[in-house]
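Design a sequence for this backbone.
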């Protein structure tokens, strides 16, 4: 699992996978999937061998593939090496694999154990499981708030809520997901770049929801559109403005919902078709509410800063209409909590997602 994590951000839309080969209680080989299109974890582990793996055991976080994709089947390499036992963490919901990898190995006489640390292994790839089965990006709503639930002061100032460590963590998250999405309100208020400013990490595709195409030509998003791929989704923007933005290198798409706003479900289908497996949603409140209402949010990550702003007009993470009764609330399950510098990071999965995305055991 630790090996698998090294591939984070580089393998999308493929999973992160780690593999270890054991013989006589010793690790004789290890590898991970390092980048999209590259060798799979199993083959990298085999490539690292300095001795024969005949009769050895392979521990792998995901069921080995048995299909010809960008690389030949891993099951073939495992059999060639004479590996006698394969211990598998996650099952692979990819229809091309889905149990066929494990079955093929068994039929060839390999001892196969499945569901080993399955829950922990599954947690490595929520994005892959969602995208391979649904075809739409896995959406992570992220925000930072004070103890009293504010994302800005009453004057609108928001720099900064959390400390440096938490802000650095956000940049790591941006590297991990293929897209980053914000509403025009946030862009007009903060003029953000929405890129990654860390050595050796990559930036996501920027997606701006801008119903009426109000994105200013001199915004930092527009000025950097040739450097960082940018998509602007609108509902009722005029042709001329759209053409202007396109000239700056921005991809402009019309996804109207019939009520003058962007249809987020349709936008997710479009982005999925473009190959985007994951999106970090960085609000603000209006877009967050619309995203929740559209049912496109799979995960929520909240940074809580040890401060209080107060102010009845100060912005909160989710605005819009909201629900009328507590019983109508959207429900989430706590997945993890950790301290990042002086701030707290709370990570939640949407309840529907929890039931819907993982393959049956
Ligand atoms: C990976 N890395 O380590 C393993 C994967 O297009 P390909 O040939 O790279 O195959 C991608 C599929 O292979 C992927 O959807 C998953 O089902 C399976 N296993 N993929 O990218 C790996 N073991
Ligand atoms: Zn493979």
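Sequence:
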């Amino acid at each position: 699992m630790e090996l698998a994590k090294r591939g984070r951000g580089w393998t999308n839309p493929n999973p992160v996978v780690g593999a270890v080969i054991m013989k006589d209680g010793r690790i004789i080989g290890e590898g991970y999937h390092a980048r999209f299109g590259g060798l799979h974890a199993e083959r990298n582990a085999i490539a690292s061998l300095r001795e024969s793996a005949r009769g050895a055991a392979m521990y792998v976080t995901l069921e080995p593939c048995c299909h010809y994709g960008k690389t030949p089947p891993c099951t073939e390499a495992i059999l060639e090496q004479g590996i006698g036992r394969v211990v598998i963490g996650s099952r692979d919901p990819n229809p091309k694999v889905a149990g066929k990898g494990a079955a093929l190995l068994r039929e060839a006489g390999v001892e196969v154990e499945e569901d080993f640390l399955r829950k922990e292994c599954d947690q490595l790839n929520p994005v892959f499981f969602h995208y391979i089965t649904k075809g739409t990006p896995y959406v992570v709503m992220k925000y930072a708030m004070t103890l009293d639930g504010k994302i800005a002061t009453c004057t609108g100032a928001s720099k900064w809520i959390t400390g440096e460590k938490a802000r650095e963590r956000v940049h790591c998250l941006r590297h991990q997901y293929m897209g980053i999405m914000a509403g025009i309100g946030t862009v007009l208020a903060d003029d953000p770049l929405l890129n990654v400013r860390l050595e050796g990490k990559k930036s996501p595709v920027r997606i701006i929801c801008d119903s009426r195409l109000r994105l200013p030509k001199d915004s930092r998003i527009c000025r950097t559109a040739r450097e960082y791929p940018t998509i602007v989704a609108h509902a009722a923007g005029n042709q001329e403005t759209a053409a202007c933005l396109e000239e700056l290198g921005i991809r402009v798409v019309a996804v109207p919902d019939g009520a003058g706003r962007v249809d987020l479900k349709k936008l997710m289908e479009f982005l999925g078709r473009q190959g985007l497996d994951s999106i970090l949603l960085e609000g603000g409140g209006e877009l967050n509410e619309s995203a929740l209402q559209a049912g496109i949010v799979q995960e929520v990550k909240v940074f809580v800063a040890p401060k209080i702003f107060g102010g009845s007009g100060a912005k909160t993470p989710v605005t819009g209409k909201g629900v009328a009764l507590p019983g109508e609330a959207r429900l989430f399950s706590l997945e993890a909590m950790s301290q990042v510098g002086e701030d707290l990071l709370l990570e939640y999965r949407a309840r529907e997602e929890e039931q819907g995305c993982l393959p049956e055991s």
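Residues 355-361 have pLDDT under 50 and may be disordered.
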